[in-house]
């Protein structure tokens, strides 16, 4: 009988489980979404950084005269 009394007023195991379970579900999905966003930024940021560094090296080699204009343009096209 006491269990029914607590259950009618919203106190007891059922109410706490629903509140806690819902909160944990929100936290779970927030962590998953943050991890996916972080992963996408990490992958896209490294790729962009590698290409820009490679282009800088290519420009330095062209400026030093190590490669000619034809080779510079061909390698630049490959990088982009």
Structure description:
The protein is an all-alpha fold and 80 residues long. The chain has one domain. Helices cover 88% and strands 0% of the residues. It contains three helices and no strands. It has helices at residues 2-8, 13-64, 69-79. The longest helix has 52 residues, at 13-64. The model has no long low-confidence stretch (mean pLDDT 77).
> Helix/strand/pairing class, anyone?
mainly alpha
Mean pLDDT, nearest integer?
77
Strand coverage percent: under 5%
Q: Shape from CA axes?
A: rod-shaped
- Number of H/I helices: 3
Order of helices and strands: HHH
Number of domains: 1
Low-confidence stretches: none
User: Distance between the terminal alpha carbons, to the nearest Å?
Assistant: 74 Å
Rg, alpha carbons: 29 Å
**Fraction of residues in helix:** over 70%
How many strand segments?
A: 0
Largest β sheet strand count, sense and barrel closure: none
Give the SSE map.
Blueprint: H1 2-8, H2 13-64, H3 69-79
Quick overview:
The chain has 80 residues and is mostly helical. The chain has helices spanning 2-8, 13-64, 69-79. The protein starts with a helix and ends with a helix.
């Amino acid at each position: 009988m006491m269990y029914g009394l607590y259950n009618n007023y919203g106190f007891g195991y059922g109410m706490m489980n629903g509140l806690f379970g819902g909160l944990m579900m929100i936290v779970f999905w927030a962590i998953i979404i943050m991890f996916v966003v972080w992963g996408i930024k990490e992958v896209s940021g490294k790729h962009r950084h590698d290409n820009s560094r490679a282009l800088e090296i290519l420009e330095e080699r062209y400026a030093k005269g190590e490669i000619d204009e034809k080779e510079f343009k061909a390698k630049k096209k490959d990088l982009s």
